[in-house]
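User: Fold this, then the next.

Assistant: Folding the first:
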Amino acid sequence: DDAKNLKKRNVKALKDILINMSKVIYKTTWQEAQRLLLDNIEFVNDIELQNMDKEDALIVFEDHIRQLEKTHEDDIEIQKKHIRRTHRKNRETFLYFLDELHDQGKLHSMSLWTDLFNAISNDERFSKMLGQPGSTPLDLFKFYVEDLKARFHDEKKTIKEILKDKSFTIDVNSTIEEFVEIISTDKRTVSLDAGNIKLTFNSLMEKAQSKEKERLKDEVRKQKRLESNFKQLLKTKISSLNEQSKWEDIKIQIENDNDYQALPSEFDRI
């Protein structure tokens, strides 16, 4: 019993000494620990500890090291979590910054990194992102702009609905300022992206220009057809036409004919 009690006492005493020895860390070897113990006053002054069974002492040491290793690993994991949390927070804060730029109309679906780099790089929310793993500020910027671009078709549809409600049609003479003024009176535009608004205007203007181009082509074709019909009228109905013929005399003969009346002006007929 005495031996058992002594062993128990020595185990506890050595544990307490090791716990209080700051130089003993998770990677300290048994050889290093023994040298450190010889410099420890408590250990040196404890004769019974000096005579402790070496195998028992080694077991106590190994248990202590395992505990230190676990604590060290836990600390590393806590540190990693903290770093990951900081990095995540930096990304979130940077995205809030992009939201601010978007709300201010500075960032939109047509924005380029080069155009906004000066404004972005001077902000500390950009600086905090530098050097951390994962998405870079440029990556987040690109993702943000891509998300805005992905909204284009839905937002274009909304704008067209607003224009329909306002009974406003884009034609070749419409301006972007007029367009924005018209749609801005509708509360649905609050959430719309400035770039998508401009892209929608460009799209509608392109359509209007194409329509106008076709209209002009149709007018030219129609005019040519009318002129051709009128020439044919002159050929078929006026047999006595010659160089001495006067327009007034000819006009009397054909002015009631549909092909004559189809030409809108006297200038076109002469």
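Now the next one, as you asked:
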Amino acid sequence: MGDLRLFLLLPLSLAAFHGAKGCLECDPKFIEDIGSLLANLIPSEVPGQTQLLERQVQEMIRLTFKVSHSDKRLRLLAVQTVIKLRTWLKNEFYKLGNETWKGVFIFQGKLLEVRQSLEAKLKELLKNFSEAACSEDCIVVEGPILDCWTCLRMTSRCFKGEYCGDEDPRKAESQEIALFLILLATAVILGSAVLLFYFCIFHRRKMKAIRRSLNEYLENKLEELMERIDEEEKDFRPRK
């Protein structure tokens, strides 16, 4: 069982530590502990034990990541609160371990209930802490603060900007510049279209005038030519 846990949990720990993170996965050892507890809950004779264990650990990691990344304001939490939440989750697994094994489906249903309870608790804790930390009074607990997105610990008592869901001034400025450039490009395109339309109309009228003048010129020349031909015919007629 020890080799199985080591083989399974090592890539999961690395993925959680170097990739997307949630509040509970900032400590890689926590993932190993959860995997060990889950492995002890699943009898070795259960078919597909490795796949079942891997799937349940991934579901737990995915849940905490989803909660902390669902809102910009849900990324800060007191380290002591995170520790208490981890302890609560481990106790839930210990309770499951004391129950009689009733099959894979019952086991998955109980784990689903644990994940739902964890999701509700984590959302409430993150929301309450954010409201306190981002308020004008900055009423927060003592001790370091954990940024669940980066796993960095901070000692700031008050937060603002992106931590509180406020728009980054530099980002807002970039958006304004982008909007201005879009409007400018649109104005240039529309202006070019108007000028092209005007040029086409003006050119068309000019070409009509040229064709009209050319037709009149050709008609006059043709009349002159016909008159000359008539005069020449008269000169060559025999006199009676």
